[in-house]
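Example 3.2
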Amino acid sequence: MSFRIGLCDRNKGFAESFADYAGSDKSFDIRVIMFSDMARVEEFLQRESLDLVLTDDISKCDLSGSIPKLCGVTAKLLVEKKDTDNPYEIYRYQAGHKLCEAAMKGVKAERKKHSLERVCVYSPLGRCGKTGFAISYALYNSPDCLYVGLEDFSGYKTSDTDILYLLKSRSPVLPKVISEQIRYADGVMALIPSASYQDILNVDMNDIKLLSDTLSEMGKSYIFDFGTGCLGDMSILDAFDVIYMPILGDPVSLQKLENFEELIRKKSLTQILGKLRKIKVPEGRDEIFQMIEEGL
């Protein structure tokens, strides 16, 4: 899979030369996307993702920390000082392969920072804020946290390609298709493999592990949003490190939770119970952000 690097430099000749070299040197799997100014980069990042931004202008970046960032994406400053010791600066006047190496080093360093913990949200209850929490979680951890919608009936536009078929058939083009089918939805980058539970019922734990492994190899952290009745194989939940479970406090809801836990025990999947993090989801997105900030 190619690494997407945004390049915004006022020296058009330099920018075009670097983009041409990066595209021609197949030893670097780099796709350079050129921008005329940082406002265009910012606009692009509202819809799609980049692994890194290279620029000679960080005036639009968030400089409140030690790392320049634009919409959560790290930016590296192209400078004319050859012996810079700043890890967020890159000397511009060096050989093409050296520039690519420096850019790739930056991308790999950023990807190591992203938590690749396997996270999902599931609840046997309805109207408990499950999807709202999942979207907010992805948004809080954006831009590299992907919302993966596997609801009973999706409220978002589904992928143009049958990703679940490619998943079940172990197709070698799966990573490429996933990359192409990631869409911008409700403020976050999203992958919606299916429109309804009928397709998802045929998916098993090995399929979900393959999908999550593929996303991890792409450098994405993620949160899977499972519909209440879409899991034909309850052991799917065991593919995750953390299972957020929105709950309600009324007697009927508490009985449903008790019945769910009894089902898990009967299926000899008690290890799943140790991964559950039961949460009461507040109504507003800002309140959900605060809950996440405070460690839930």
